[in-house]
Amino acid sequence: QDEQFKKVISHAKEYGYVFQSSEIYDGLSAVYDYAQNGAELKKNIRDYWWKAMVQMHDNIVGIDAAIFMHPTTWKASGHVDAFSDPLIDNKDSKKRYRADVLVEDYCAKIETKIEKEVKKAQKRFGESFNKEEFLATNGRVLGYQEKIDTILKRLGKSLEAEDLADVKALIEELEIACPLSGSRNWTDVKQFNLMFGTKLGASAETAMDLYLRPETAQGIFVNFLNVQKTGRMKIPFGIAQTGKAFRNEIVARQFIFRMREFEQMEMQFFIKPGTQKEWFEKWKETRLKWHLSLGMGEDNYRFHDHEKLAHYADAATDIEFKFPFGFKELEGIHSRTDFDLKQHEEFSGKKLQYFDHEDNKSYTPYVLETSIGLDRMFLAVFSNSLVEEKLENNTTRTVLKLPAVLAPVKAAIFPLVKKDGLPEVAKQIVEDLKWDFNVFYDEKDAVGKRYRRQDANGTPFCITVDHETLENNTVTIRHRDTMEQKRVKIEDLKDLIKTEVDV
Ligand code: ATP
Fold it and tell me: Which UniProt keywords apply (predicted)?
């Protein structure tokens, strides 16, 4: 797993997808830059989401709210008081951990132990080994399993103050059962606010304390009535938005999975109170379908329903994806009731109500939210696409099998050789195709090598101009995943590519 993840990170750098930010100054932790290919992939994911959410739904519109918001926003939303992570320091190593993430790590370690026990037993019992029976009856394994179950029960999304002492005790207990940090000397668990503060205004006396938004959702809530009125929207309707969010995350690891500056794609769907269960199910289904439409494997997704809910929610689920380090949250779907709009009504003194002409009455709508991290989605797509294939001649080929619709470059065009007028024809094809797709011209090295470069780059098609092209205006088109080559007419190229890369 670790090995695969390392490969993902180095491939992302080598092929111009993701760089460490400010690398020449040794980087900034949990901050990354998208490079020439990464920016394209990210944009394509964003567009794919926008198209599905805004363009395809006639009752959803998109906005682009500012990153800076009036500071009272964050009091109303609860972020000033409650947007924090539980922190614990190890007194010996002076290392700081996010308590819930640390507990997760212990869980993972215990799971590895269980796997080892299973493998050992499998070897011993050979054919007659029955995994289910072994897991259900083996004392040691059951002990481990029990530990994990207790942990999962005790750890919810929002840790209350009284839980913190509990978590410390749990960490101490786990460290004895399954040493991870090598030291048992912990501080108490403290809560740490994740918002970045900044100042608006030049002079010290008049400057106003601001926060960089930690989520894009609030920009939608405060604009609810403006959009509803000017767009003449009728409930149920949605407002979608993509944009940067900032969180001072303590645990900076797992590459772009958890960043300090990241991008969200959120949609708040405003509904009639009492219909939230129905819409919650509907949006769970709709969002999962969106993910599956990319063809990255049904088994790589699962729902994780929350038992312990945040103060604003009456139902919540995560769509989890199988990242190289295991199943983790990719998207959240939350039934937020009227919490947000009511809070903003209270703090702003303005009514944020909707007049329902059918029922002839006003109410504060309920909200169903879908929230996905663009960078996390990038990591899901990228890590899932990177494969190493053994070929018949015993060589291996590295392929980035990106869904064609998301690939940064749709087609690479090569002249077979750098003479006989082939480059000119190839360049003309580039000129013709570039109005519709991102294409790339390459004439360096043997054609086989060029194919491999594009495979690793994620380009779904390679088009080669050879001597036959000069006779009959045909070229070969090679498919990245199957490596199959077909001879086609130059004039058919555009439609051929379009059928694969258009949604
Ligand atoms: P986590 O539990 O992983 O910290 P969260 O539950 O706090 O995530 P939400 O507040 O529900 O996340 O945010 C919605 C989505 O935004 C998440 O599903 C995730 O895809 C993305 N996201 C949240 N925090 C980060 C981050 N630090 N870096 C990248 N993406 C993030």
Answer: Aminoacyl-tRNA synthetase, ATP-binding, Cytoplasm, Ligase, Nucleotide-binding, Protein biosynthesis
Range of the domain at 471: 409-501
CA of 26 to the centre of ligand 1 (A): 26
Together in a domain, 241 and 118? no
What was the pLDDT predicted at 115? 87
Give yes or no: residues 204 and 100 share one domain: no
How far apart CA 443 and CA 459 sit, in angstroms, is 16
Residues 126 and 233 in one domain: no
Q: In this structure, what DSSP letter does residue 193 have?
A: E
| Dist. CA 419 → ligand 1 center (Å) | 53
pTM for the whole structure: 0.87
Among residues 503, 244, 270, 247, which one has the least CA distance to residue 366?
A: 270
The CA distance from 243 to 266, in Å, is 9
Q: Is 154 annotated as a binding residue?
A: no
Mean pLDDT of the chain: 92
Looking at the fold, whether 227 and 352 belong to one and the same domain comes out as yes
> How far does the centroid of ligand 1 lie from the alpha carbon of residue 489, in Å?
47
Atom of ligand 1 nearest to the CA of 247: 27
CATH code, domain carrying 488:
3.40.50.800
Give the atom of ligand 1 at the shortest distance from the alpha carbon of 266.
14
Examine the pLDDT at 436 and tell me if it is beyond 90. Answer: yes
Instruction: Express each pLDDT in 26-60 by its tens digit.
Output: 999 899 999 999 999 999 999 999 999 999 999 99
270 inside domain: yes
Q: Would you give the DSSP letter of residue 445?
A: S
- Answer yes or no: are the C-beta atoms of 382 and 13 closer than 8 Å: no
Would you state the pLDDT for residue 226? Answer: 97
